[in-house]
Amino acid sequence: MTYTCKRTSADWPIAAAMLPFPGSQDADEAVWRKQLAQVRFEGFTAIDLTDNWVRIADLSRERLALLKGLLEEYGLTPVAVSAIRRSVIDPVDWEGNLAYSHRVIDAAAFLGAEIVSVGLHRPLLDAQARALWFWTQPGPVDSHDPDNWRRAVTRLRELGEHVERAGMALSLGDVRGHPARHRRLRGPARHRHRHEQRRPQSRPGQHLPAAPAYRGLPRERREMHAPRQLLAHEELLA
């Protein structure tokens, strides 16, 4: 089953990423309802199921079916599922991350997603976790040697072939600083099609800006913006 993008500029989805919400893997149905209702209230009809919110790959079949039913009830289309910091070339956890990514693909297909997003980022280091903006601190760096490049291509191609059989697309996230940075993946694992994301708004007219928007700003300008974003984040979680 081959994925073919049929979307045009007229119906391209703007999806609400679940990044701002707290981890709710074991939350009861009422919590999921409240969170999804907030996304729908803000006017979104498409959603990116980020696994910092719920790891769909680790849900029981019953819980996965419950989530699918709630998405349908609230009129939210799961256009994307994002597996965050599950690098398939992690020197320690690559096997577990690869197996997890395959489970993500199966769960995403069950939910009717269009895109599965993966990347080569590893978990944050302590200094990154303590920083206001984690990207201002150096993170793990992967080897750029040819063997590591081949490992990345082979494992991402494996995921791409799985995604293609399921009738979805594989999106490769930001790989700056990784072996794949300056080369193009070939075959099913290439980045075929992007999905846009916006974080849910705390109220009309306000939204939490995506973190990459601050990467190019001087430090003093980042700090100027920080209080407004943190305040909006607290309002969202209240």
Q: What would CATH call the homologous superfamily of the largest domain?
A: Divalent-metal-dependent TIM barrel enzymes
The arrangement of helices and strands along the chain is EHEHEHEHHEEH
Q: How many alpha or pi helices?
A: 6
Largest sheet descriptor:
6 strands, parallel
Strand order of the largest sheet: 5-4-3-2-1-6
Helix fraction, binned, reads 25-40%
Alpha-beta classification: alpha/beta
- Whole-number total of structural domains: 2
End-to-end gap: 43 Å
How many strand segments? 6
CATH architecture of the largest domain: Alpha-Beta Barrel
Q: Categorize the overall geometry.
A: globular
Proportion in β-strands: 5-15%
Q: What is the highest CATH level, the class of the largest domain? A: Alpha Beta
Instruction: Give the mean pLDDT.
Output: 79
Low-confidence stretches: 178-238
Reported by name, the CATH topology of the largest domain is: TIM Barrel
- Radius of gyration, taken over Cα atoms and rounded to an integer in Å: 18 Å
Quick gist of this model?
With 238 residues, this protein is of the alpha/beta class. Helices cover 37% and strands 11% of the residues.
